[in-house]
């Protein structure tokens, strides 16, 4: 290993040699200069700076807000879009994810975006686009007063939008976003916006009111009963149970808030008393004070359909995309909770094998046609606008015999029922909107721009923007001369779903570069039969078409590939696709901003890993590795690529192999103690020895050897967060060992003595496990804002150590530290996979707040991180997890990840955006690619 003789003599790596000359993205950004909300109210919006596509900063005073902006807008050919996210609902984290995705895909020379945020108390702020890339609103809520520009009132906010924005794209899910709140505010100030008007939103958003309206329009509806206010009508609910032939003690029903958005608070109940208990819980938690109880649709199959309006001149012409069947997967382990499986918030937004999607659905053709017909009629009848998502159920024949014979929804094959109208569909990268749009030829950018431009035609003053668009769209055909890039993700470790998210994000960001041809590739899971050893070179790799990437799990991608190659299924999909595309084109061809479809109908191609690598060599592709854990991070894949001289991203074989082994990592840097780099004492045990030993004996031996009272147990060779748990006693160790013995995929929350979240376990279980002393740190708490107090941080600081994670980037021997982030755990002592990688969960503080760590300690910390990176001979990029002493910057190494998470809200994105100037995701990933492409030069 190469080491530096002293910290001060180590070469510093100039950031300009890593990142290219960065042009500010094509967006309008509020200046990052801190401007506090004014208490006097004399100036409603003070000190705003707007950064245009150059680095020019333009000061705007109140006179400009009152009128000058209108003149500027008339002269400009650039459409200014105001992107609003956040809101008061529990879905505001998802709202941030959606806004980030929209921001990624709509930027262009003809369209600039400014970002705004509504906090839980309905205060409005102009925020920088960098804040939109935060993992959760909690990442920046506590510092809004110092980082963002606030408006005194929502009226002032609307007046600002009227002056400086051409059209608003509201991306607030749930309350205030879909209930007509933001729409009414915009209507009063005559601000054009995308989506349905306020009056129609109010009816469609309220699940009870919507069901009444559907019934009036002749649609079959699910029988329900509404409960509202303090006095719950128990006798009325009992009569409802009786009228619907439900047992008052055990009848199965669904209880859900009427105005809480998608899936929030939805639960299953049994009988009248249980239903009332669940209703009271929803009300007491402040989710909603109006709750409905409805019949559980047993035997039904759930679906969801995106509707796009392609009409003009105020005439609606809704086209329904290919619907998606939502298949809930139940395990065979007898878990009692599985019988209550519903498509809830977790299943909808977090990667899980508990749900699988099929687009188009595996329904009879007459049912698919009925869904499309009904959703189109509903869109018109409810007066919806631009786009929406409509959910429902397909029930087998005779399941709804109580309905009228002429009610809409009857088919020979069964009954179609519509249940939920989503006015602002989720827009995360793999959401239903993009899944279904890609099936009919739209890339992310193309569908979003189509929605925006269609909205513009409804406002006469925006007609001039409805010219031919110069949208950033994906390349639908192969072009000679483009640099080939293969992005590989997946694998078979417990981090494979995070790997899918990472690879999808990298692929979408690299597509922005016009000189690249980027192919997404899935490393399929290995053979589950452990008795059969398969040569790694024989592992399957799927080269994927656009639409098949947009899935939530690797298993779902593999199933989709198999399904796509089935002749019968392929023929049905092709016919439906053509039908929908013809309907869309018939509506949009009259608009010159519509440039056609940009996703071709291609089939997946299956290779062995060896043949895939030879193809990469043949076409001179660079491989972007996004496979977390397993062969993607232990040096195996790197070794295979090196043998064929195929360039790839990240560290080489030797460094990858060392860093994958947590013991080897410690041994490689334990000589750096005098430089302020420390390692944690470890005790390594074989899994078989643990299974055959008394847990009390092992507990005593390990705690005595490591001289500690509580332990951290983790696999010796696996990715971050997998199988990592805090154990406080011998019984905790017993629970963990039992999970290893039973090959459990996860340990449920709070199975151990100290509170914790879900612990994802490696399957198959690791051969070796590490015991370490558990490092105690003081809890960092985000203090919610109150009437008399701003939001802030609470940290006692009794322990002078905090946990950090930090990216390193550059060439071997000259790695540079990005800005470290302090990690805040929300559900226990160990960061879960979700908290690390899934948008809408987890909190990262970037940079570390000065109230926790001084600037001097931070700089020393970064120097030591760079020393670690260069000692381990890292290159390209990696992530180092550690504890840091906030007083002197000493670093206690936890682990090094050579293929770190690259999801849309990963901490590496935050850290790149903390550079000066900020490095936006598409530039960041292109930089990592270029570093990899230079490997064999």
TrEMBL record:
Which Gene3D superfamilies does the entry mention?
A: 3.40.50.20, ATP-grasp fold, A domain, ATP-grasp fold, B domain
Q: Which GO terms describe its biological process?
A: cell wall organization; regulation of cell shape
Task: Please give one Pfam family short name.
Answer: Dala_Dala_lig_N
> PROSITE patterns given for it?
ATP_GRASP, DALA_DALA_LIGASE_1, DALA_DALA_LIGASE_2
Keywords (A to Z) from UniProt: ATP-binding, Cell shape, Cell wall biogenesis/degradation, Ligase, Nucleotide-binding, Peptidoglycan synthesis
Segments traversing the membrane: none
The cross-references to InterPro entries, in alphabetical order and at most eight, read: ATP-grasp (IPR011761), ATP_grasp_subdomain_1 (IPR013815), D-Ala_lig_Van_CS (IPR000291), Dala_Dala_lig_C (IPR011095), Dala_Dala_lig_N (IPR011127), PreATP-grasp_dom_sf (IPR016185)
Name of the protein described by the UniProt record: ATP-grasp domain-containing protein
Instruction: Give the organism, scientific name.
Output: Lactuca virosa
Print the organism lineage: Eukaryota, Viridiplantae, Streptophyta, Embryophyta, Tracheophyta
């Amino acid at each position: 290993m190469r080491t530096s003789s002293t910290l001060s003599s180590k070469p510093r790596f100039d950031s300009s040699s890593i990142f290219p000359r960065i042009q500010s993205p094509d967006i309008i950004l509020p200046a990052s200069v801190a401007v506090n909300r004014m208490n006097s109210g004399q100036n409603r919006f003070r000190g705003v700076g707007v950064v245009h596509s150059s680095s020019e900063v333009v000061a705007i005073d109140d006179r400009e807000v009152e009128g000058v902006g209108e003149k500027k807008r008339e002269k400009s050919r650039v459409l200014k879009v105001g992107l609003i996210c956040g809101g008061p609902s529990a879905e505001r984290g998802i709202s941030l994810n959606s806004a980030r995705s929209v921001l990624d895909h709509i930027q262009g020379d003809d369209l600039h975006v400014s970002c705004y945020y509504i906090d839980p108390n309905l205060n409005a702020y102009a925020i920088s686009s960098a804040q939109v890339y935060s993992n959760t609103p909690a990442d920046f809520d506590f510092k809004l007063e110092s980082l963002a520009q606030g408006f005194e009132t929502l009226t002032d906010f609307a007046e600002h939008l009227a002056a400086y924005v051409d059209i608003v794209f509201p991306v607030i899910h749930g309350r205030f976003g879909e209930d007509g709140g933001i729409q009414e505010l915009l209507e009063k100030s005559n601000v054009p916006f995308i989506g349905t008007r306020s009056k129609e939103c109010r009816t469609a958003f309220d699940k009870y009111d919507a069901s009444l309206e559907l019934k009036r329009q002749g649609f079959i509806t699910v029988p329900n009963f509404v409960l509202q206010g303090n006095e719950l009508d128990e006798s009325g609910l009992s009569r409802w149970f009786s009228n619907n032939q439900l047992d008052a003690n055990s009848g199965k029903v669904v209880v859900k808030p009427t105005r809480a958005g998608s899936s929030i608070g939805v639960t299953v109940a049994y009988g009248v008393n249980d239903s009332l208990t669940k209703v009271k819980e929803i009300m007491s938690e402040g989710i909603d004070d109006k709750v409905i109880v409805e019949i559980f649709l047993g035997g039904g199959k759930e679906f969801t359909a995106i509707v796009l309006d392609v009409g003009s001149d105020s005439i609606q012409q809704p086209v329904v995309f290919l619907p998606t069947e939502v298949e809930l997967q139940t395990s065979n382990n007898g878990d009692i909770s599985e019988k209550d499986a519903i498509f809830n918030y977790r299943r909808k937004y977090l990667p899980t094998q508990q749900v699988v999607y099929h687009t188009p659905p595996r329904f009879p053709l007459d049912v698919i046609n009925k869904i499309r017909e009904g959703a189109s009629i509903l869109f018109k009848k409810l007066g919806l606008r631009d786009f929406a998502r409509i959910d429902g159920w397909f029930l087998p024949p005779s399941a709804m015999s109580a309905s009228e014979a002429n009610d809409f929804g009857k088919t020979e094959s069964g009954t179609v029922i519509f249940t939920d109208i989503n006015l602002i569909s989720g827009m995360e990268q793999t959401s239903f909107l993009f899944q279904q749009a890609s099936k009919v030829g739209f890339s992310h950018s193309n569908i979003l721009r189509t929605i925006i431009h269609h909205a513009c035609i409804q406002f006469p003053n925006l007609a001039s923007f409805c010219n031919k668009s110069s949208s950033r769209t994906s390349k639908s055909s192969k072009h000679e001369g483009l640099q080939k890039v293969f992005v590989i993700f997946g694998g078979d470790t417990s981090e494979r779903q995070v790997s899918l998210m990472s690879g999808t994000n990298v692929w979408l960001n690299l597509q922005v570069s016009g000189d690249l041809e980027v192919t997404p590739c899935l490393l399929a899971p290995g053979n589950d039969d452990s008795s059969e050893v398969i040569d790694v070179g024989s592992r399957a790799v799927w080269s994927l078409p656009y639409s098949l990437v947009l899935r939530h799990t690797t298993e779902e991608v593999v199933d989709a590939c198999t399904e796509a190659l089935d002749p019968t299924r392929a023929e049905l999909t092709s016919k439906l696709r053509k039908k929908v595309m013809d309907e869309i084109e018939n509506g949009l061809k009259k608009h010159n901003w519509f440039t056609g479809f940009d996703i071709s109908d291609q089939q997946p191609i299956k290779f062995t890993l060896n043949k895939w690598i030879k193809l990469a060599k043949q076409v001179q592709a660079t491989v972007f590795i996004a496979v977390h854990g397993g062969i993607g991070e232990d040096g195996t894949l790197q070794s295979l690529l090196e043998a064929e001289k195929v360039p790839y991203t990240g560290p080489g074989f030797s460094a990858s192999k060392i860093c994958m082994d947590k013991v080897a990592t410690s041994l490689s840097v334990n000589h750096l103690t005098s430089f302020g780099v420390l390692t944690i004492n470890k005790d390594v045990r074989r899994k078989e020895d643990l299974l055959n030993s008394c847990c009390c004996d092992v507990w005593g031996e390990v705690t005595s050897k490591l001289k500690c009272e509580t332990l951290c147990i983790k696999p010796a060779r696996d990715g971050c967060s997998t199988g990592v748990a805090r154990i406080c006693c011998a019984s905790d160790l017993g629970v963990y060992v039992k999970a290893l013995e039973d090959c459990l995929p996860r340990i449920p929350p709070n199975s151990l003595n100290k509170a914790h979240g879900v612990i994802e376990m490696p399957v198959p279980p690791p051969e070796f496990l590490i015991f370490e002393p558990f490092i105690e740190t003081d809890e960092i708490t985000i203090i919610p804002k109150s009437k008399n107090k701003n939001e802030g941080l609470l940290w006692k600081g009794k322990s002078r150590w905090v946990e950090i994670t930090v990216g390193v980037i550059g060439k071997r021997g000259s790695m540079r530290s990005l800005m470290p982030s302090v990690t805040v755990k929300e559900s226990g002592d160990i960061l879960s996979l979700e908290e690390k990688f899934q948008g809408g969960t987890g909190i990262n503080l970037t940079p570390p707040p000065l109230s926790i760590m001084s600037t001097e300690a931070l700089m020393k910390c970064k120097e030591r991180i760079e020393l670690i990176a260069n000692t381990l001979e890292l290159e390209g990029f990696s992530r180092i997890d550690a504890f840091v002493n906030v007083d002197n910057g000493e670093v206690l190494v936890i682990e090094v990840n050579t293929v770190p998470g690259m999801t849309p809200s990963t901490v590496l994105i935050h850290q790149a955006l903390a550079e000066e100037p900020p490095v936006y995701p598409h530039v960041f990933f292109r930089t990592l690619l270029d570093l990899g492409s230079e490997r064999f030069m």
